[in-house]
Amino acid sequence: MKNRNSPGLRILFVTSELAPLVKTGGLADVSAALPAALRHLGVDAKVLVPAYPPLLSGLDALRVLVPTNSVPGFPPLRLWSGNLATGVPVIAVDCPDLYAREGGPYQDSVGQDWPDNALRFALLGKIGALLSSAAGSLAWRPHLVHCNDWPAGLTPAYLHFSAGGKAASLMTVHNQAYQGIFPASTLGLLNLPPSCLSTDGIEYYGNISFLKAGIAYASHITTVSPTYAVEIQTEALGFGMQGLLVHRRDALTGILNGIDTEIWNPATDLHIARNYSSSSLQDKAENKRALQERLGLRLEQDVFVLGVVSRFNYQKGLDLLLPAATELMQLPVQLALLGSGEQEQINRLAPLARAFPGRISLTTGYNEPLAHQIEAGADAFLMPSRYEPCGLNQMYSQRYGTPPIVHATGGLIDTVTDCNPTTRSEGRATGFAFQHHVPAELLSAIKRAHSLFQDPVQWRALQLNGMAKDFSWDTSAKQYCGVYEQILKQDTGIGRAN
Ligand code: ADP
Fold first, then answer.
1. Mean pLDDT for the stretch of residues 315-337
2. Which residues line ligand 1 (CB under 6 A)?
3. Which has the closest alpha carbon to 308: 269, 346, 258?
4. How confident is the model over 439-472, as pLDDT tens digits?
5. Is 103 left (phi over 0), alpha (psi -120 to 50) or beta?
6. What's the confidence (pLDDT) of residue 1?
7. 56 alpha carbon – ligand 1 mean position (Å)
C-alpha cells in the first residue's frame, strides 16, 4: 500500500467522543488527533459528533449550519458547525431530546446505559449517511465517511440502503468487545428495511448489533493494530463476529494509533519534577525520587520501581498481580499503581497495598498529572492486558525511557520489541513480553527486566531504543490516507474526480 498525502480528499469522521470535550477512553483522543493529522496532510477532514452540552459549550466559532430540520422517525434537530482548538472543523448534531442531558455519552450519572441509546446513535448514524449521500443538505459532501465503533456503525447500513451518489465508507473497530447490541424489536425504530435483519446484515444471535452493521456494510474495515486485526478473526477475541470478520478479511486492515507527542514529551512535560531527554537520561532519577515521595514509597534509589496506569477491569488483566505478589515482593521492587474502574478489582488490589506499605502504592481515580509522573518516575511499566486492541501507555512509557513489560497481545506485540540476545544486539529491543497470561510468565518477564536493570549500560541502551521510536500520528495518518485511496479506487460512489 502506498503511503502518500491526499490533498483535496474529503473525509467525514463520525464518532461519539471527542477530546478534550467528551471523553470516556482512547476513542476521544483518536477522534481529535487523527483528523488533525489528516488535515496536516492536506485532507479536508471534518468530525461529526452528537451535540452533548459540553461539546456545544467547548467549540470555537460556533454557528448554526442547518436550522431546525426533521429526519423521519427522529425528534427535531439542527446542525451546528464549530472548531476544536486545533482548528479541526466539527459538525454537531443538536437533538436536545436525545443528547441534552447531564451524564456521559452512553450512561447517566450513576452508570446506567441511557435507555434510548439505540435511537440516540441511530440518529448519529443516519446523519452521517445523509451528509455522505445525494440526500445531504450541505454543499460539502465527503468522498469517504470514516465511522468509529458501534455508535457510528449504522452509517454504512443507511448508506447501503440509500439511492446512488454516495460516499464510500470505512468502519474502524477500536474494541471488538463493545458491540452496541439491542433487541431485534428495536429495528422498527431505526428506519431500516426488515431485510437487513439477516445473518449477513445486522442480526446478531437474535438481537441486532450496530457494530455488526458497520462491519457488514462498510466498504472497508480497519482496527487499531495489525495483530488485533488478526486476533478479532478468532473465537477468543472475535466476540461472536469472527465468522463475519474472516469472511471480510480481504477488506480488513490494522493501523496503529499514534500518540500526542507534545503532551507526552519528557523534555517539556509540565507535570513532572524534572524534564529530561535521551541526552540527559540521568535526570530521570529525580522523577523516581519525586514519585516515591509523593506516593509514600521508601526513598530507595536502587529499587526497581514498576508503574501501572490503567483502567481496572478484566481486559487490563491486573488481577494477575495477586497470585504473583508473594514471589514478586521477594525481589527489590516497588509498585506504583494508578487506576479507576471496577470496584471489585480495586477491592482485590487494595489489601496488597496494605500488606506492603512503603513498597506498593495504590491510587484510585482518574489523575492525569500522576499518570505523567508514573511514566517518568518508574523504572519499568507494567501492562499485563488480557487483550489490547492498540494501547497507549506502552508507547508513552517507551518515550519516557521506561521500558514496558507487556503480555504479548494485540497492539502490545506491534509496539514493543521483546528484549532477547538478537533484538538487543541489533539495537531493537524496547521492553519485555510474556506469551501466556499466567502469573509465572509475568514473574519471569519482570525478573528478566530486573536482571537487565542491574546492568546500567545495557538498561540505558534499552531505554534509548524506546525513546528513539516514532509513535507520531503523522505516521498513522499517512497509512489511513493509503487505505482511503485504496477504498476509493475500488468504490464506484462519489469518486475522487468530484
Ligand atoms: P484504554 O483506552 O483501553 O483505556 P489505553 O492505554 O489505550 O487504554 O489508553 C488509556 C489512556 O487513559 C491513557 O492516556 C492513560 O494514560 C489514561 N488513563 C487510564 N487510566 C487513567 C487514570 N486512572 N488516570 C489518568 N490517566 C489514565
1. 97
2. 25-26, 309-311, 338-340, 366-368, 371, 390-393
3. 346
4. 999 999 999 999 999 999 999 999 999 999 999 9
5. left
6. 36
7. 25
Beta partners for residue 306, in sequence order: 335, 380
The region of weakest confidence among 19-28, 31-40, 323-332 is 19-28
Counting from 1 in the atom list of ligand 1, the atom nearest the Cα of 394 is 6
Q: How far is the CA of 426 from the centre of ligand 1 (A)?
A: 31
Ordered strands of the 432-434 beta sheet? 360-364, 333-341, 304-312, 380-383, 404-407, 432-434
CA separation for the pair 107, 116 (Å, rounded)? 10
**Listed residue (303, 260, 261, 308) closest to 285, CA to CA:** 303
Task: Please state, in angstroms and rounded to a whole number, the distance separating the CA atoms of residues 207 and 186.
Answer: 9
| Atom 19 of ligand 1, nearest CA residue | 310
Report how far ligand 1's centroid is from the alpha carbon of 25 (Å). Answer: 7
Its sign, for the CA torsion 194, 195, 199, 201, is: negative
Q: Whose CA is nearest to atom 2 of ligand 1?
A: 26
Take residue 29 and report the three cell numbers written for it: 483522543
What is the pTM (predicted TM-score) of this model? 0.94
